[in-house]
Amino acid sequence: DTEVTQTPKHLVMGMTNKKSLKCEQHMGHRAMYWYKQKAKKPPELMFVYSYEKLSINESVPSRFSPECPNSSLLNLHLHALQPEDSALYLCASSRTDSSYGYTFGSGTRLTVV
Amino acid sequence: AQSVTQLGSHVSVSEGALVLLRCNYSSSVPPYLFWYVQYPNQGLQLLLKYTSAATLVKGINGFEAEFKKSETSFHLTKPSAHMSDAAEYFCAVRGNYGGSQGNLIFGKGTKLSVKP
Question: Chain A residues with CB inside 8 Å of B31's CB?
Fold first, then answer.
């Protein structure tokens, strides 16, 4: 299995809703990442997990809450989002030596209404 | 700090023509460099990577890139464009957060259009 699977593919949520994005990989990668990508822009790093521990938080607002329950799963919990949070959310994984490159999922297209 | 600059936000070529997408990097240490492709409404797919082995790197779908330290460049080429190559292309360098784990620092991207 050489894929990163993200669910759901599309999500529409209101500003008072709570929802979660899910990411799964079975490549034995011990580093996992959340990126946010706005239209016509490059991806921007949000969080990095290494060996299931949060190692990097790029000053992301607390309405985004990551969780890594085990070495294969990565969640992003969403609460009280704003319309400007609408974007493509990409999950990626890599070996802990990321010089081998990242494997990206196909993303969750999030719309906040 | 590491960074990459992609020259040209939009490149248009005819089918069968040479594809050349430009990327220059800035790095205080020997860089790890990557090219990714993104099709509409999809994630990013790794085309190729440079990790200080061979300077000419061959990737998937007929793409290759040459690392030139003297020019701090890592341009992506393909001899003959196909319609299916139309996509957004991102050059990236591994940053130095977290040591070898790193993070990817992306250029702004180049949209490749292929005319029939």
Answer: none
